[in-house]
Model the fold of this input.
Amino acid sequence: MFVTDIRKEFYDVVVNQRVALFVSPDIDALCACKVLQALFHCDQVQYTLVPVAGWQDLGTAFMEHKDLYINCSNVDLLETLQPEEDSVFFICDTHRPVDVVNVYNDTQIKLLIKQDDDLGVPSYDDIFRDDEEDEEEGEDSGNESDGSAEPSGKRRRYDEARFIIMSYIVYLFSELKTRSLIGRWSVIGVTDQWVHDKIPHMKYVTDIATLQRHVSRHNHRNEDEENSLSIDCMRITFEYEYPCVRPLTLCVSLRLVLYQHWSLYESICNSCYTSCSFKLWSINGQKKLQEFLADMGLPLKQVRQKFNSMDMAIKENLREVIEESANKFSMKDIRVQTFAVHFGFKNRFLASDVVHAAAALLENVEKDETPADNFIKALDCLSRSNLERLHLGIDLAKRKLKAIQQTVASCICTNLILSQGPFLYCHLLEGTPDVKLFSKPLALTLLCKYLLKAFVCSTRNKRCKILPLIMAAPLDVEKGTVIVLGIPPESETSDKKNFFGRAFEKAAESTSSRTLHDHFDTSVIELKMEDRGKFLDALITLLS
Done:
């Protein structure tokens, strides 16, 4: 059931209770968690925070806590968890579709989701009338209905519409507390959806334009220089690639990843947009990069040193110089709308910087720490009091982005991307440099996005340009398992609808492949290496 009065039907219910807050391991969920934590701290609501990596973790944690606030709605929770009748679930989630049973349960399921989103939920009569008609047809034909029967009609079409939209947490809680409490986390949540390719670029532009109106109303009112540069002052600015007029603040934002915390050269080499535009995995691409740097007229010493160490005169005109040269090299979209947050004089971060830092901390494989430890560190980096941890996350993100760029270049140059008919397929072998990084869903998602774009830029096969990509990477060598991820075709305009979740389920069922569908994102599964051949054959047959 959709919650219509957020205060009466949700907050007033939990404010006097002890809440178990279950959060999935992605940046958008972390941001929603920070919002809830801030609200609970204000009203002294007792809560327990429990990170859950998948459905198995969720089931185990539910048996321990019973009462919970959860952010997963794309399955029938009552059937999955078998709760007691007095258990109530409040769900805030960006995964689509929302399970229709959760939508029409009026007692135990409460959905904190805007009803004017493009949910496409079929009406109650359409769903259950179709089911009744199917049962009658089954009885007439002498076939007994079982749990594996296919949903029909509008419900099946709805179930196949798997796509993700931004979290509307900024709207849900605007009536509870001052909106300035949640502006920064909402900005980061929206940016995460775009960085990890869960929403198309135009959707991102529309969403941040809405957030810009919200943010501009709640920045500090006092614009004098002393307050705007105080170490205790946090300011969020909306930028469209033009220098900001606020004193001593360089507001230059380009489609270059982490460039304000890196050297300009390394940022260009490791950004998906510029790397694919130049085709840096090729000799000609490297020549184009040198021509681009020469066209800008910037000294190589300046380009190769850390951004903060560049001459101020160069930084002041950097946006105009890069944009002018980028247009000559067919990179007309080098600018992108974005947000920046300022902490005093020195600390300035773009929203995408925070997303990359938090994701790197969340999936850190450099130390033998538990997923729960990484979760807490990623959550901490979203707080303004933990800037040291945020900088640590940025350093980890740099290493991850370098590994992604090197892996993409290797896959393209060695022709590891194969056309399987209805989709492209790439398998990373054990022993590939930094392959351990790609055993994590967010890192593998970024790699897939980068690799597919690079392949589309390099191939001459027009048909292959419109195919989706399935990628597999080693997960557990001892158990002989791989992580498999599917992403939709490369597109800047259409919705990022991903149909691989249902396809993976069907392929595994038809071939008895040993798979584990434990991730909240159904397009990510674990697969036994021995079953890879028959699983792929089934996918080819299913999607042809």
Q: What stands out?
A: The chain is about 45% helix and 10% strand. Residues 219 and 417 are 47 Å apart (CA to CA). The first strand starts at residue 19 and ends at 23. The mean pLDDT is 79.
